[in-house]
Design a protein that fits this description.
- By secondary structure, the protein is an all-alpha fold.
- Strands 1-4 form a two-stranded antiparallel ribbon. Strands 2-3 form a two-stranded antiparallel sheet.
- The longest helix is centred in the C-terminal third of the chain and has 27 residues.
- The N and C termini lie far apart (about 60 Å).
């Protein structure tokens, strides 16, 4: 009887080290998509992490350096009003960036749409609902033109919309001078829209009766004339919150949201998979232009006039707010709620500096620093989570 040696033993027996014991089959690699991630990992994967982190840091800074009145209800609403106007732009700009495109004409669109809205009211005597609807429709048509030029010529949207930034700004200056006989402002709008239908939808304060009731109970302060110190919530803030809710729902819960991400990630692969890339991008350009027109109507109703210089640099501030909120400049990644937080950061810093001893001109320094830090932070977190190099 011959005893097998290590040389003539079967590989199965040699692998186990125990004669007669079967070799277990090799384990299949685990699918990373089915692995349960920790809470910290899931949080780090969220694109709005940078916006939330920045908001916390900015809040702590002002809590330590600003006058306490900044964090009263009146102070918070004062901060939120400019944040809301920027945020409406930033949310739609974020959607467009996720879809892989830019629109640098939205700041100039605020001025030009405001010109159209004012002319229809003052010079042509249109009613407020008709003038607002016509202004929004014009903006939608202009957004479609922007999209067609980008899609058909295949020029970068950065270049196309940068050209229209100057074109619309110049038309605003020329148009207002023509309409007013040389001035760059068109006044008298407040008297025209007073008492008109739907005026409450674009101007003034919401929930005024509730705030008067709360003031009568002694829960809020009064002015010297007896009026509530907080007359209500500015309508722009309501629009801002509504935009954030709807945009987040569309991105995360609808097929259109998937199309937006796919169009920005790889438009050719998305088109081959049946995604209507052309229609998606056209819709995003139209939505972005319409949001600028809405901001124009809101600001005209608030100020009672239109101005050719209105909306200056808002295109860059909207992009910065979107980037702070987690959007990539290359497309295919981002968050609407992140842009929401990014806009609040802008409002807090732009208004909050007046509550401190710092010079308000530091706000310009903040713009550049926040853009750079946000991009570096988002890239670092994404590489840590995904393992990129």
């Amino acid at each position: 009887m011959v005893t097998p040696t290590s040389h003539d033993a079967s590989p199965a027996l040699a692998a186990t080290g125990l004669p007669g014991e079967p070799v277990p089959p090799p384990m299949a690699p685990r699918d990373e998509r089915l692995m349960k991630a920790s809470l910290l990992t899931r949080l780090m994967r969220r694109p709005e992490l940078g916006g939330v982190t920045g908001l916390i840091l900015v809040t702590v800074f002002f809590a330590l350096t600003a006058d306490p009145s900044m964090f009263t209800l009146a102070g918070v609403l004062t901060i939120m009003t400019p944040a809301a106007q920027l945020g409406i732009l930033a949310i739609t700009a974020a959607l467009l960036m996720i879809g892989g495109e830019f629109d640098l004409s939205i700041g100039s669109m605020i001025a030009f749409a405001g010109l159209i809205f004012g002319l229809l009211l003052v010079n042509y005597g249109w009613s407020l609902p008709l003038a607002a609807a016509a202004t929004l429709l014009f903006a939608a048509a202009f957004g479609a033109v922007n999209a067609q030029i980008v899609i058909r010529t295949r020029l970068p949207s950065f270049i196309v919309t940068l050209a229209f930034l100057f074109i619309l700004r110049g038309l605003s200056l020329v148009g207002l001078k023509w309409a007013t006989g040389g001035s760059t402002q068109l006044r008298g709008i407040s008297d025209i829209v007073e008492g008109q239908p739907l005026a409450w939808l674009f101007g003034g304060n919401a929930f005024g009766a509730f705030f008067r009731w709360v003031t009568d109970l002694g829960l809020l302060g009064k002015l010297e004339n007896g009026a509530p110190a907080v007359p209500g919530i500015p309508v722009a803030i309501i629009w801002f919150i509504a935009f954030a809710i709807v945009a987040t729902w569309v991105l995360l819960r609808t097929r259109v949201g998937n199309w937006i991400f796919a169009s920005g990630g790889d438009s050719n692969a998305a088109r081959n998979s049946g995604v209507p890339v052309t229609q998606v991008k056209m819709g995003l350009f139209m939505l972005t232009a319409m949001s600028a027109a809405l901001v124009a109507v809101l600001t005209v109703m608030d100020a009672g006039s239109t101005d050719a210089r209105r909306g200056a640099q808002k295109e860059f501030e909207a992009v910065i707010a979107a980037v702070i909120g987690g959007c990539l400049l290359t497309g295919g990644y981002g968050s609407a709620i992140g842009a929401f937080f990014g806009a609040i950061i802008f409002g807090m810093v732009s208004i909050g500096l007046s509550y401190t001893r710092f010079d308000s001109d530091w706000f310009q320094v903040f713009l550049g620093a926040m853009l750079l830090l946000a991009v570096m932070f988002n890239n670092y977190i994404r590489k840590r989570v995904t393992g990129e190099r």
